[in-house]
Write a structure and sequence with these properties.
Layout (H helix, E strand, L loop, with lengths): L23 E9 L5 E9 L6 E9 L10 H15 L5 E5 L12 H9 L3 E5 L10 E3 L8 E6 L3 H10 L8 H10 L13
Parallel strand pairs: 1-4, 4-5
Antiparallel strand pairs: 1-2, 2-3, 5-7, 6-7
Length: about 200
């Protein structure tokens, strides 16, 4: 259930032209190994529903920054940058986490990614961050726990509707779940990884 009001704009987010359904959409996730490195995964789909995967990409980063509370982006962005560099050009990016951390627009991972890569970003968080009272709650499938949706480059209510409509019967949209499994090394990319 999307709980943001129709047409509602969030602080720090400019209203934009409605986005087209045929965009190149990428879902990314990063998983850390025990030796200070990380594995980043990108699942690319055409269209907002993300029902058909066009390509999958995995990049390994040998050294990441240590975890720093409130600065997850310092640890995640190098992996995201590495995997975006080997994938096709995107028009929308989905990250596992928050785009903004509070109603005033304090940047989260998604805002830092939007600034670094020049893309609109939807943050899809699985746990509530207390200060993120602006996040739209989306319940998918039979899940009782919501996802917390924030965005940069498009209105949060639009982002919430996109996530609610994404392919997959479970709480987590299929594209993000696939990126998670790829980043953990549980599965291999199913499609060729052409450089672009």
């Amino acid at each position: 259930m999307v709980q943001a009001a129709p047409g509602e704009s969030r602080p720090g987010q400019a209203s934009q032209t409605p986005i087209k359904d045929h965009l190149a959409v990428g879902a990314v996730d990063v998983c850390y190994d025990g030796s200070g490195g990380a594995r980043a995964a990108l699942v690319v789909c055409r269209g907002l529903v993300c029902s058909k995967v066009e390509s999958e990409h995995v990049a390994v980063v040998s050294q990441t920054a240590p975890y720093e509370p409130g600065a997850l982006f310092k640890r995640e962005l190098p992996g995201i940058q590495a995997v975006l560099a080997i994938g096709p050009r995107l028009e929308l990016l989905l990250v596992d986490g928050y785009a903004t951390l509070d109603p005033q627009g304090r940047p989260g991972l998604g805002a830092h990614a939007a600034a670094a890569f020049g893309l609109p970003v939807i943050g899809v968080a699985k746990t509530l961050f207390r200060a993120a009272t602006h996040a739209a709650e989306v319940r998918r499938g039979a899940a009782t726990r919501p996802l917390y949706i924030t965005a940069v480059g498009l209105e949060t209510v639009v982002a919430a509707r996109i996530v609610a409509a994404m392919a997959g019967p479970h709480r987590i949209p299929d594209a993000l779940a696939r990126a998670d499994r790829l980043s953990r090394g549980l599965v291999r990319p199913a499609t060729a990884q052409p450089a672009s």
